[in-house]
Amino acid sequence: MELQKPDKMKNTRREFIKIGGLTIAATGLVSPFLQSCADKESETADHNLKNEMAGVEPLTGEDYEARLNRLADSMINEGVDALFLEGSTNLKYFFNVSWWLSERIFGPLVNIKKEPVWICPDFELERAKEQIPEGHEIRTWKEHESPFDLLAGIVNDLGIDKRKIAMGPSVRSFISEGFQRSLGTDLPDGSMAVNMVRAIKTEKELAYMDLANMITKKAYKYGFSKLQEGMTREELGDHIRFAHSEMGTGGSGGPFFGFTSAFPHGTSQVRHLHEGDIVLVDGGCSIEGFRSDVTRTIVFGKPGERQKEVFNIVLKAQQEAHKAVKPGIPCGEIDRVARKVIEDAGFGPGYKYFAHRLGHGIGMDVHEYPYLVKDNPLVLKPGMTFSNEPGIYIYGEFGIRIEDCFVVTGDGARMLGGMLTQDIEHPFGEDV
């Protein structure tokens, strides 16, 4: 789960926080974990963060070609002969093309007969040629002409059955409706053809995600070493952002203190840090476009019994869900396993305290298909990646969430980025 930046006093959703500066923790207020971080920090004149990007292998033309080949196979499996995509992450994923959305229609008709054929506003042709892969045909339409009729002409030239032309995920309704009028037929949803390609990550993509998740965890660890009585969430967020930058990538983490941690996506209420507060941080970064999403919850000072009790329940829920992951298991079953742990501990029923699904798919989008949610019958396959993020949220007290991303393997699952939570005082495992 990701948290978002407030505008002044308000939080908006689905955008990682970017926030502001502070100093180091007061010794008398920190837990053993926080004190060890502070001690290590004092051993160096500055910090021990280093650039983690050396040796990252970039995507190549062969990677994009392989993705298109997988998409063609997926289209055939779904009974689709041609698929229209428009400006979105999908254009970046399949073609390394970045294009903004507007009322002017732009995008490829991916088909099983030949290379994709692109529809492009005539006055944008030269800019489009800078990005569209060499060898792809581009057909243009002038401002007074119809891009919908242009597509119908492409379909006719390709000899494709118009009943087997689909719209990709995120194609806007005015575009699909216009194409339907020009072709004189309803057009199916081709989302599954695209989603199943992006859902299965390659080894190179998993390496990017492994690194991104590790960097975010190291950034949190650095930020936690800077906790201080009275600090603001903006100050902690600034340290986390700085640490990401020092390690070679732009990333961030959105912190909440005390009772504000009970709001899964933040609140307009302001809380500065005080001894005994829960500190919940959620955020991430990206490597070659592939994202991390990590949440860690600690206590500033000595954890209370109530905090430790709830924390241990959440940690058990994450661990039991992780053990339940295997190829062939329905996505909904993994949510059920985690939710049962929380309900059996008295924090139920249903979404009463564990207020959201267990997890979401993650890749180039922070939230993407598929989802670990109740009753989802889709079965897990090796290479799928998800967040595993159970939580308990008690308004007026605190919220606790632990989030790591994982990949489904041939016989189970593997957490990405390592540094797994051991207990409330060891949020990054043994190496503290």
Descriptive overview:
It contains 11 helices and 18 strands. The protein has 432 residues and is of the alpha+beta class. The chain has 2 domains: 6-54 and 201-415, Creatinase/methionine aminopeptidase superfamily (Creatine Amidinohydrolase, Alpha-Beta Complex), CATH 3.90.230; 79-189, Creatinase/prolidase N-terminal domain (Creatine Amidinohydrolase, Chain A, domain 1). The strands form 6 sheets. A 5-stranded mixed sheet has the order 6-5-4-3-7, with helices on both faces. A hairpin with a 4-residue loop joins strand 17 (404-408) and strand 18. The longest helix is centred in the middle third of the chain and has 22 residues, at 203-224. The radius of gyration is 24 Å and the shape is elongated. Residues 2-30 and 39-45 have low confidence and may be disordered.
| Computed structural class | alpha+beta
At CATH level 2, the architecture of the largest domain is Alpha-Beta Complex
Q: Distance between the terminal alpha carbons, to the nearest Å?
A: 24 Å
What is the 3D shape? elongated
* Total DSSP E strands: 18
Give me the CATH fold name of the largest domain. Answer: Creatine Amidinohydrolase
Largest sheet properties: 5 strands, mixed
Q: Taking Cα atoms only, what radius of gyration do you get, to the nearest Å?
A: 24 Å
Strand order of the largest sheet: 6-5-4-3-7
Overall CATH class of the largest domain: Alpha Beta
Work out the helicity level: 25-40%
Mean pLDDT: 90
State the low-pLDDT regions, or none.
2-30, 39-45
